[in-house]
Structures are given as C-alpha cells and as structure tokens.
Amino acid sequence: LAKTTQPISMDSYEGQEVNITCSHNNIATNDYITWYQQFPSQGPRFIIQGYKTKVTNEVASLFIPADRKSSTLSLPRVSLSDTAVYYCLVGEAGSGGYQKVTFGIGTKLQVIP
Amino acid sequence: GAVVSQHPSRVICKSGTSVKIECRSLDFQATTMFWYRQFPKKSLMLMATSNEGSKATYEQGVEKDKFLINHASLTLSTLTVTSAHPEDSSFYICSATGTLPSYEQYFGPGTRLTVT
To answer: For residues B116 and B102, what is the distance between their CA atoms, to the nearest angstrom?
Structure first.
C-alpha cells in the first residue's frame, strides 16, 4: 500500500481557502486518491476522490499532477465547522472491486474566527 | 448518499465479557466491509477486511480469535470482542463498500467501547 505524508496540523482563518498537500511517492498505477474528513468521535466522511488531473465537487477540489506522486485538497472559504482532521488515502484495488486503504496520521485543520 | 449504521454507539462492559458490535449498510449492498480501531488522538487502524459469505482477512497483529468478524449478509457485519480487557477500550469504526466504479468507503458513526 502506498504510504502517504501530510502536514500534521494547519491553521486558517474563516473565509480563507485552505490547501492541504499529501505526498504519495509510491502510488501504483491502479490506485485512487481519496480524502476523508473526521470530526471527534465520529466516523470519517468522504470528501472527494480522484485518479488524475482535477476533480471538483460541491465541497472541495482535488488537484493531482501528472506524476500522481502528490495531491492537494482545496477547501474554498472555510468556516469554523470545517475544523476537523483530514485524511489522504491511497488504496489498491482489490479483486472484489474494493479499495483497501491505510490511514495516515491526517492533518488537523483548525479554523480560527 | 449511502448510509452505514453501527449499534451500539456506546457500550461499557466488564473485563472478561464479550461484546458484539453490528455494522449495517442501510441502502446498498456492501460486498466488502472493513473494521477499524481508533485510539484517542490517533489515526484509524485497519483490523480486518470481510467479504460477504467468506472468512475475514485480518491485518498483521490482530488476533482473529479475539476479534470475531462475521459478514453473513450483504447488509450486515458483526465484530465480537471476546474476553474483553481494558486495553481493548477504543473507538471501533466499520466501513462498507459496494461495487465498482467507485472505491468510496462509507463509514459508520463508530462505537465507543469501554472495558472496566
């Protein structure tokens, strides 16, 4: 499984754009990149997933360069409720169509008023 | 979106007893379910992967005789912590995934286990 490296913590003021970069130098050809958000004492919540280039949904954007050795989660105009731990995951595709992933330490984002 | 539930949300048990945690996919068929454990201020640690109708695959260092996993149907997986000890106290989270093309895992809300 590809190992991921991301900053342990980040602070941001409300209303700012936040970019969290994750390194995954050993990503395999069939690996997808997925980001999750976790609040204390809750299960992780899916944010976004991508394979290459750029993916955008209603809550975030994911930028993946051509070599796929890193990815950047972009959160536009964060609010206090975005304070959480953000995990970057890279998983191999299982034979049953599932993705087995390993959680890294995650990035603790603190949004400041 | 897909919903995964866990029951109970919190449980306190005495040392030496067994505790069963249920994980259900409410609106989709979960071909694969995962069980994680998370200690305070730590990341999630994958314990095992289970596919419906087959034996679970445990990660290295996880005792399969202590953490019994059953995935009897496409909507239900159970984790039984047998002969629980205080060091088993943790936050247990399950996730479920359906079929391709998405590899998204849908996580349950977690179960807080406290062993006294």
So the answer is: 41
| The length of chain B, given as a count of residues | 116
* Mutation for B interface: A100, A107, A108, most B CBs within 10 A: A100
Render each residue's pLDDT in chain B as its tens digit; 116 residues.
689 999 999 999 999 999 999 999 998 888 889 999 999 989 999 999 988 888 899 999 999 999 999 988 889 999 999 999 999 999 999 999 876 556 678 899 999 999 99
Contact B107, B1 (CB under 8 A): no
CB pairs under 8 A between A and B: 69
Nearest-angstrom CA–CA distance, B116 and A17: 45
Burial of A50 (0-12, 13-18, 19+ CB in 10 A): buried
- Beta carbons of B80 and B18 less than 8 angstroms apart: yes
